[in-house]
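subagent[fold] <- orchestrator: predict structure for attached chain, return tokens only, no commentary.
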Amino acid sequence: MIVLVLLLATAAFRGLGVLGVRRYGEWRVAAAHGMAVMLLFTASAHFVPAGVTVMPTHEDLVAMVPPFVPYADGLVYLTGVLEFLGAAGLVLTATRRLAAAALALLFVLLLPANIYAAVADVSKASPLWQRIPEQLLYIACVLWVASVKTKIKTKEEVSV
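subagent[fold] -> orchestrator:
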């Protein structure tokens, strides 16, 4: 489901580019914004109280953390904040490359928790056969986004 959010949001932003919104004139920039939308969904789950049934909750995500990892509760909040910051960083041209690289690292670091959750059969976790390709897609997407070169405007371009 969340992969669909990434794909649809990216397509929508690129569609705006086709319609003339210059900001979304490149697929990589559209993907950066699509990933930001996806991250808003995933990050929000880190703060959802127990009892909500339409999406994973904070408790569900704490259950995904392997038992040997200390401070699972706090780490779930921290990763949610990092995902929100990553989303903001992706939409800001000046921070896009750094945010994308940091998110790639975060996705790599979260992979063991996702593997644990799938193997331990945590109720809200995706099956392992689905989770690994999803994580790899997210890592590939942010690394691709990180390769966007930011054009520095000259004085003449700014004054026009």
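orchestrator: received. Logging for downstream: The CA atoms of residues 36 and 100 lie 10 Å apart. DSSP finds seven helices and no strands in the chain.
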